[in-house]
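Trying the structure run again after the queue cleared.
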Amino acid sequence: MAFDWLEWLGYLASLIVLISLLMSSIIKLRWVNLIGSAIFALYGFLIGALPVGFMNLGIVLINVYYLYKIYNSKEYFKLLPIENDSPYVQHFLDFYESGIEKYFSLSEVDPIKSEVKLFILRNMVPAGLFIAKRHNEHTLEIMLDFVIPEYRDFKIGSFIYESSKTYFLSQGYTIFISYSSNPDHINYLKKMGFVEDTDEKGKKYYTKTI
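Done. Tokens:
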């Protein structure tokens, strides 16, 4: 019975390590790999396979080291306004079309007719695209807030909705709104401080005061 339990523990560790390699986000990969490696190390020590135990313990320490660096490193963020004739925007939208369509309808996104369009640079990499249109005099309706998979750790969201408030206020906007029905996107909005509301037509949306 004990042998079966240990064998399944090894299978579980292998599965978790395998899943970690499918992660597009570096932070998620590190965390999931850390968990899998820790279980694998435990498995190795329990069955007396010291090389397996020590190797995976080393992997755990490596993951801890890089996670520490990720969470404590000072990163560079910048809003980069986009010109209407920028060809890179359409290339970006085309390249990430399938990922964007999971959360937004590209047919409703028109960069040229949108008052605010920004690339978000993270360490000089165009890691996100933010497009919004004027809803009313002081309200900005978010049409697209997309971050490429490698940088989905909420840092860019916090940069847009918290650290960059001065930029939006200087443009005359005091409120963000977003119409969304995607559960993952709604969860993201709530993490960014948006609250649920209903418009005069009874349609649900999410809003945040800048």
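The first strand starts at residue 77 and ends at 81. Worth checking whether this holds up in the mutant runs.
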